[in-house]
């Protein structure tokens, strides 16, 4: 058996090989990418008769390097970084941290304690696509929430009426459509109910237009603290700069995986994953138009996830 520890990084990977007695067989720093994988295979071919005799510890369970090793038939163990840190504290006296030392710790860990850790199983292409899609979904939710928090902070500084009008729905199509029309309190006080209803209709709302428009107008025209007009320009720009990237996420992207060349089963899984995200009441949806009763929301959600998957597949992404 050959036990391998890999301390991975973006530009290179430190590798340590141990035998069953814990003796160091080799240490290398390999480049990232195809050449690094080739060098790793050569290094292991000199010391193992079969791929199954290679046991690898690495602090991740996904990525191109892990995929290449799984495809080669090596046994891969995804080690939680916290577990690796605890193991290092128990077995390494030096407090000095090094990538080469971390690689040896990982090799030693899978040599002696691998029964306490989870092996990485090779999945089908569809399963891998769903995993990437799920990570993209998670990242979109986190990104959207950060943008909403920034928008809320900016509005709190100069535009409390907008916060009152939309409350927790700053990521909704209503909020985006109205803030495009009225980015400052002055605009908010002057816009008519008819124009608000028109903006809501263009954003996709079909029900309770007049009632919603009247409610929004009442909040925008309610007495509130305000800044002098000249000092409003800068925070208004910050609102539009936050809104802009969110709007661009839903345009000019392939939908449903077709533009990405996904097989039909992957597109079906994509639909099953993303369609529920846009139903009313979902708090985790990355969709901008997150209320129910909107046309095109499912299409936009799938498009954003498809675009994220396309970005993740480009060289250098990750």
From TrEMBL:
Domain Transposase IS110-like N-terminal as annotated: residue spans? 4-160
Set out the biological process GO terms recorded for this chain's protein: DNA transposition
- What molecular functions are annotated in GO for this chain? DNA binding; transposase activity
Record region (Disordered): 243-264, 276-318
Start-end of Low complexity biased regions = 296-318
InterPro entries, from UniProt?
A: Transp_IS110-like_N, Transpos_IS110
Q: Which domain of life is it from?
A: Bacteria
* Protein name per Swiss-Prot or TrEMBL: IS110 family transposase
């Amino acid at each position: 058996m050959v036990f391998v520890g890999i301390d991975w990084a973006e530009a290179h990977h430190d590798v340590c090989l141990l035998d069953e007695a814990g003796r160091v067989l080799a240490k290398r720093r390999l480049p990232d990418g195809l050449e690094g994988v080739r060098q790793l295979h050569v290094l292991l071919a000199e010391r193992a008769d079969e791929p199954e005799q290679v046991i690898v510890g690495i602090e991740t369970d996904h990525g191109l390097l892990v995929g290449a090793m799984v495809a080669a038939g090596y046994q891969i163990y995804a080690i939680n970084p916290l577990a690796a840190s605890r193991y290092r504290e128990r077995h390494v006296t030096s407090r000095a941290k090094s990538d080469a030392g971390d690689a040896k710790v990982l090799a030693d860990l899978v040599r002696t304690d691998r029964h306490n850790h989870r092996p990485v199983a090779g999945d089908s292409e569809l399963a891998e696509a769903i995993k990437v899609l799920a990570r993209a979904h998670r990242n979109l939710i986190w990104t959207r929430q950060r943008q909403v928090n920034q928008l809320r902070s900016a509005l709190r500084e100069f535009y409390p009426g907008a916060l009152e009008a939309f409350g927790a729905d700053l990521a909704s199509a209503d909020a985006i459509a109205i803030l495009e029309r009225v980015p400052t309190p002055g605009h908010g006080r002057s816009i008519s109910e008819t124009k608000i209803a028109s903006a809501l209709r263009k954003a996709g709302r079909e029900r309770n237009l007049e009632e919603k428009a009247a409610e929004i107008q009442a909040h925008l025209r309610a007495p509130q603290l305000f800044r002098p007009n000249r000092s409003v320009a800068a925070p208004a720009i910050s609102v539009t700069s936050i809104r802009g990237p969110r709007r661009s996420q839903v345009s000019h992207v392939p939908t449903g995986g077709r533009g990405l060349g996904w097989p039909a089963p992957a597109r079906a899984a994509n639909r099953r994953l993303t369609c529920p995200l846009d139903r009313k009441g979902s708090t985790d949806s990355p969709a901008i138009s997150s209320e129910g009763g909107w046309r095109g929301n499912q299409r936009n959600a799938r498009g954003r996830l498809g675009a994220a998957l396309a970005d993740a597949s480009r060289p250098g992404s990750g």
